[in-house]
Fold this sequence. Notes:
A: alpha+beta, Ubiquitin-like (UB roll), Fumarate Reductase Iron-sulfur Protein, Chain B, domain 2, 2 domains, 35% helix, B: mainly alpha, 3 helical TM bundles of succinate and fumarate reductases
Amino acid sequence: MSRETLTVAVWRGAEKGRYQKYEVPRQESQTVLDVITYIQRHIDPSLSYRFACRVGVCGSCAMTVNGSPRWTCRTHVDKVLDDTGQLDVAPLRNLEVIKDLSVDMTDFFDKWAKAKGQFHGSETRHDDFSAVSPDSPQRKVASAGIECIGCGVCYSACDVVAWNKDYLGPAALNRAWTLMNDERDVAGIDRLKAVAGAGGCQACHSQQGCVERCVKHLNPTGAIAGLKRATAIAALKGQLK
Amino acid sequence: MKRPEDTFDAQRETHLWLAQRLSAMVLALCIIVHLVTIVGAVQGGLSAAEIIDRVAGSGVWFAFYAVFVAAIVVHAPIGLRAILSEMTKLSRARVDLLCFIAAIFIAVLGFRVVWGFYTMGGAA
């Protein structure tokens, strides 16, 4: 590799495909998303990938970069280049590839719904605002997991997702745990029923791939441990029938 | 595709999970006592005959190892069940059957040993 250009191997195709090499000009503070965008705009317009905000808010641009899932808009090329100076960009693991770097996120988001990731309140618009103290222990636990941007990096990093198709995954379970700690939410037991058992929180091996890779530095493994405790207590009370 | 909630029962699965964790706690204690005792006995120069002499007919050791075996009978098959359902394509019913057989197998072998030691030397 010369200093002026970067050799990038990009996955082309769907489940079956191959890496194609491109030469991209090096720039200061260049992100992996910059590199992919350059390829599409200047070398090969048929390259498919997904992005929106470019600033780490929307969670659209996650890809596998040199073997690890990352948010490409906030990943500097300098930080991920290995000794050989090679950059490999592939679609996220554990999701069906539509084309090139775009994956089908349907399963990922369907599992949020299966984990009852929707808020269920008891009050109406005619009630006053709920006053939730920022210092309450529950609020603090909810705050710890609330910043998830739904990028799918944790889902892609998780080995349990890879070998158990029913497993809800770190993001959906993290979402469920934030709602379990939302004192306005009233769907607690139904949610615990949805996240208990073979495809739920107990399937987690606590390997912490999700924690390692989470772009927002959340702790889904900790959230899942919280769900394990909550489901165990509910089961002892016979509430999960 | 089958939805997760159709394929398992939350209450039963969570009870099994809890049973495995609780039996693990029992096992942790039993293993420590077991290892400390055998290392102590060997270091102390006790012969096999002397060890059998102490264990045979002892209600305390019989109860201890009965609890130990019972914890294994609970713990191991549940773990085996998790591994088989993750790593093989066997149906859940078949996995459950295999693990039930494993539980019976471990129970028969384990309690035979415990009973054998208790009755050794014609003490009981």
